């Protein structure tokens, strides 16, 4: 191996590509889960409308449907490809790995997705324009098709965590990758939570309805569905925790639960209380309560959940074979994939990476800072911001702003080289590259310290290098 | 390092799960529908705006503006979902090119998402306001929205075009040897290609109007006069629009680097040729031929465009030694069966049911009651989903048990 199939790097200062992905991801999850959940609520309500001859329920469905068209279908359908674009530019090899394992699954999801988009227009605009039985079939098929998109995507998402057994590595079969160990648990969490979100959004829609009797009737039907969904989701979440790999559990115990557990319990408590209260007294449902509750669920519930999944996957981005920094971590005989860590240890990233300018392929006194920065971006920035004080696991902060190159290099030569930290990739680099990275980090920290004293920009302290400065 | 070897090394080490040509055909074929809805949407949006400002000039402009606003609204949804398929299939066989191009303009790739959301929301704002006697200022929403969509088209174009210029990548990524990881630039735009593809929006909406006039023949609330207006307007837009597109297509044809030899290829000249023939046909036959025939022929032209784009891509990449069809294959039959059976079963029955309902219901005034075949189709749609989900779980649980418990 004289070259690695690595891509250029895209670096977003301060928040990193990880947060860009996280932000788009959360918007997407909220929009898409609400719409799948709502589809089932529609089916239940419409079945009742049809059976008990209560056509007025259809007014609610229409209202909610129009709301969904805007809220979920514009935002959801754009942020869907949006996540894809975001992972593409953040982890091209990660997304490539997923695509090449799951292209047919994604393609099947696309069929559903297309059907769903046509379906939502049909559902909303054909209310009252076609006979009720045909519409009921439309709504049920729409609900099932919407759920199918979730069934298909969750297999891919949960494979990102891990396959859960050796089978896939040996067979390379999509079956083994898709129906992985945590698939059903993960599916359960999402299926339950989508009903909670859809019920709360349903309250938002119901809040503005004039017909009090109808409004209260609808709320009384939505609340128990949301509650059952929520309960199921919580149970499945505990089961989900049992299906996680070791690196994820370490991460969870050490970093995640301490910062997120309280918020998650608060979300469960608030959502349950709200649903119970609304069930008992539908008149308390007001827009100014429903909107903050929903926002609370999104920000304190979904955001940490998405960030946790991203963190727990670490050091990998997909299937425990591609590291966050795009290096292939292990062999996958079933697909003839070969690990790259040893080759990098032997030859170095500067020699192997196709997108390193020739003038930076050898470390010199002149280019050490610049090489260090490039290497840090390649090897670390997928998970770490390189800016002091940044929210995404800032590297300068992780080294406590140390300016001691030897101390930093000792970390690179020790735990990092040997893969001793379960949630970090094993990054084994030749000595000159370690030196360059250590030099870069120490210089950034020196600049930050000087900056807090005198506002000196990094560039004035960092040794000038590269043609741009000449 | 030689860029051809680099590209071949950048291919996903997992290989592709079926013969690469299959993905190539799917990428080209599904893109036809994406671009068809791009054209219809942009054309309808443009016409909606024009008609909106012309409301005082005659009796039908307002009705036309409102109708086209709705067409564009639905059109955006469809162009997005229909863009997903080619996006997926293209990156299976052209992953090195597509990903590199995206990373090098990453800021724009992300910006694409947010501008698309903003553009779509603005269009909805216009749609809600655009009723009889609407206020004039809401036209601004529509103009801004269309401008954002046109920008999004430019981003798409740049991403597609940069992907086939691999020998320039390094100079974009590290100009003068200094690496730029900001992804903040669009590096290459081929104006003739972009303008030509975008220009097809005008003929698209023109031909659509002719078909629109025929579709509503059974609805008494769409008067014969209005339909005649739509038909004539369609012709008035389509004929010069096709001529301009033919000119732009010729410009693109002449713009290819000499070394590619593309300018001399007769196939490439078929595009402007067909456009001119279609212009003549529309001018002469717009009263006699059924509107749907024009749509069919228009789709044929787009298929030719899609095919030609692929020829262009292959011609640009082959000299570097990148041949899509020699991608390593690791066949995966079960997931292939999953896709094709879903496409036929769910796409056919469920999608077919929705389209049949929409088509039929749109043509009657008042309530439409499904005839027995359509009602049966509805039952089949629900049934096929129940079966699909059932198989999904039974099959999945079996594999899960084997791997999680027995292994
Ligand atoms: C208003 C929004 C959009 C517009 C105006 C638009 C327009 C275009 C245009 C003009 C091209 C041809 C570029 C060229 O060949 O030079 C194109 C290609 C393409 N578009 Fe879109 N598009 C839009 C949204 C989308 C979305 C949302 C997706 C994906 C979900 C998408 C996926 C694609 C793909 C995959 C290609 C082909 C790329 C290739 O073959 O290299 N587009 N689009």
Task: Describe the SSE topology.
The complex is a heterodimer of chains A (470) and B (407).
Chain A (H helix, E strand, L loop, with lengths): L15 H36 L5 H34 L1 H34 L6 H30 L5 H5 L2 H5 L4 H25 L4 H31 L3 H35 L6 H27 L2 E3 L3 E2 L17 H7 L1 H4 L15 H12 L15 H4 L6 H14 L12 H24 L3 H4 L9
Antiparallel strand pairs in A: 1-2
Helix pairs in contact in A: 1-2, 1-4, 1-7, 1-10, 2-3, 3-4, 4-7, 7-8, 7-10, 8-9, 9-10, 13-16, 15-16
Chain B lengths: L2 H8 L9 H34 L7 H33 L1 H10 L1 H24 L9 H25 L5 H5 L17 H9 L1 H15 L8 H32 L10 H20 L5 H27 L15 H31 L8 H35 L1
The complex binds protoporphyrin IX containing FE.
Protein architecture, described:
- The complex is a heterodimer of chains A (470) and B (407).
- By secondary structure, chain A is mainly α.
- Chain A folds into 2 domains: 17-323, Formate dehydrogenase/DMSO reductase fold (Up-down Bundle), CATH 1.20.1630; 340-460, Cytochrome Bc1 Complex, Chain D, domain 2 (Orthogonal Bundle).
- Chain A has helices at 16-51, 57-90, 92-125, 132-161, 167-171, 174-178, 183-207, 212-242, 246-280, 287-313, 341-347, 349-352, 368-379, 395-398, 405-418, 431-454, 458-461; strands at residues 316-318, 322-323.
- With 407 residues, chain B is mostly helical.
- In chain B, 76% of the residues lie in helices and 0% in strands.
- Chain B is built from 14 helices and no strands.
- The relative contact order of chain B is 0.11.
- The mean pLDDT of chain B is 95.
- Chains A and B meet through α2, α3, α4, α6 and α13 of A and α1, α3, α4, α5 and α7 of B.
- The structure holds protoporphyrin IX containing FE (HEM).
- Protoporphyrin IX containing FE (HEM) binds at residues 31, 34, 38, 79-80, 83-84, 86-87, 90, 116, 149, 152-153, 156-157, 160-161, 163, 193-194, 197-198, 309 of chain B.
């Amino acid at each position: 191996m004289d070259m690695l199939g690595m891509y250029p790097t895209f670096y977003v200062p301060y928040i990193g590509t990880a947060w860009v992905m996280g932000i788009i991801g959360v918007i997407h999850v909220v929009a898409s889960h609400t719409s799948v959940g709502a589809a089932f609520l529609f089916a239940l309500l419409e079945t009742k409308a049809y059976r008990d001859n209560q056509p007025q329920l259809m007014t609610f469905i229409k209202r909610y449907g129009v709301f969904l068209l805007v809220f979920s279908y514009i935002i959801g359908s754009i942020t869907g490809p949006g996540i894809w674009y975001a992972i593409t530019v953040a982890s091209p090899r990660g997304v490539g790995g997923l695509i090449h394992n799951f292209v047919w699954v994604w393609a099947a999801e696309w069929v559903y997705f297309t059907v769903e988009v046509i379906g939502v227009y049909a559902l909303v605009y054909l209310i009252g324009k076609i006979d009720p039985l045909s519409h009921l079939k439309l709504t049920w098929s729409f609900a099932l098709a919407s759920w199918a998109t979730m069934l298909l995507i969750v297999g891919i998402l949960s494979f990102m965590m891990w396959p859960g057994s050796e089978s896939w590595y040996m067979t390379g079969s999509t079956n083994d990758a898709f129906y992985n160990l945590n698939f059903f648990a993960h599916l359960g969490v999402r299926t339950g939570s989508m009903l909670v979100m859809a019920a709360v959004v349903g309250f938002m829609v119901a809040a503005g309805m004039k017909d009090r009797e109808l409004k209260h009737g609808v709320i009384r039907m939505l609340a128990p569905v949301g509650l059952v969904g929520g309960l199921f989701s919580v149970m499945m979440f505990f089961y989900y925790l049992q299906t996680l790999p070791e690196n994820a559990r370490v991460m969870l115990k050490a970093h995640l639960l301490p910062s997120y557990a309280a918020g998650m319990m608060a979300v469960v408590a608030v959502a349950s209380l709200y649903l119970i209260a609304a069930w008992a007294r539908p008149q308390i449902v007001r827009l100014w309560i429903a909107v903050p509750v929903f926002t609370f669920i999104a920000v304190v519930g979904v955001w940490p959940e998405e960030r946790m999944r991203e963190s727990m996957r670490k050091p990998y981005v997909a299937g425990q074979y591609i590291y966050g920094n795009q290096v292939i971590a292990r062999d996958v005989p079933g697909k003839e994939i070969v690990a790259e860590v040893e080759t990098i240890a032997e030859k170095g990233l500067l020699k192997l990476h196709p997108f390193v300018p020739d003038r930076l392929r050898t470390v010199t006194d002149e280019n050490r800072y610049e090489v260090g920065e490039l290497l840090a971006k390649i090897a670390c920035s997928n998970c770490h911001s390189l800016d002091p004080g940044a929210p995404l696991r800032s590297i300068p902060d992780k080294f406590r702003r140390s300016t001691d190159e030897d101390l930093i290099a000792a970390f690179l030569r020790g735990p990092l080289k040997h893969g001793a930290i379960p949630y970090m990739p094993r990054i084994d680099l030749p000595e000159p590259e370690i030196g360059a990275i250590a030099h870069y980090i120490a210089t950034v920290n020196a600049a930050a310290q000087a900056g807090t004293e005198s506002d000196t920009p990094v560039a004035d302290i960092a040794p000038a290098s590269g043609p741009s400065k000449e | 390092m030689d860029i051809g070897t680099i590209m071949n090394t950048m291919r996903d080490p997992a290989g592709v799960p079926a013969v690469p040509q299959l993905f190539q055909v799917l990428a080209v074929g599904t893109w036809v529908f994406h671009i068809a809805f791009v054209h219809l949407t942009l054309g309808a949006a443009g016409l909606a705006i024009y008609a909106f400002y012309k409301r005082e000039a005659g009796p039908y402009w307002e009705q036309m503006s409102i109708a086209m606003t709705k067409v564009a609204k639905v059109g955006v949804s469809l162009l997005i979902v229909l863009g997903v398929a080619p996006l997926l299939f293209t990156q299976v066989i052209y992953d090195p090119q597509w990903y590199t191009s995206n990373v090098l303009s990453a800021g724009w790739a992300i910006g694409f998402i947010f501008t698309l959301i903003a553009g779509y929301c603005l269009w909805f704002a216009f749609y809600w306001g655009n009723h009889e006697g609407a206020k004039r200022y809401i036209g601004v929403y529509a103009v801004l929205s269309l401008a954002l969509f046109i920008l999004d088209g430019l981003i798409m174009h740049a991403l597609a075009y940069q992907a086939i210029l691999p020998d320039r990548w390094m100079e974009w990524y590290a100009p003068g040897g200094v690496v730029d990881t900001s992804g903040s630039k669009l590096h290459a735009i081929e104006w003739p290609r972009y303008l030509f593809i975008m220009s097809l929006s005008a003929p698209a909406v023109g031909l659509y109007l002719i078909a629109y006039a025929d579709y509503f023949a059974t609805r008494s609330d769409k008067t014969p006069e209005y339909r005649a207006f739509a038909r004539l307007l369609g012709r008035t837009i389509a004929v010069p629009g096709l001529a301009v597109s033919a000119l732009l297509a010729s410009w693109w044809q002449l713009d290819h680097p000499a070394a590619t030899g593309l300018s001399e290829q007769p196939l490439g000249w078929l595009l402007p040729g067909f456009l001119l023939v279609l212009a003549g046909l529309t001018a002469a036959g717009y009263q006699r031929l059924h509107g749907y025939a024009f749509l069919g022929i228009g789709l044929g032209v787009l298929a030719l465009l899609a095919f030609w784009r692929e020829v262009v891509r292959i011609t640009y990449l082959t000299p570097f030694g990148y041949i899509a069809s020699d991608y390593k294959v690791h066949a995966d039959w079960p997931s292939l069966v999953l896709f094709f059976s879903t496409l036929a079963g769910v796409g056919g029955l469920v999608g077919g049911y929705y389209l049949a309902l929409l088509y039929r219901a749109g043509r009657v005034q008042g309530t439409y009651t499904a005839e027995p075949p359509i009602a049966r189709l509805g039952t089949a749609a629900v049934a096929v989903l129940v079966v699909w989900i059932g198989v999904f779980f039974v099959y999945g649980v079996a594999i899960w048990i084997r791997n999680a418990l027995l292994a």
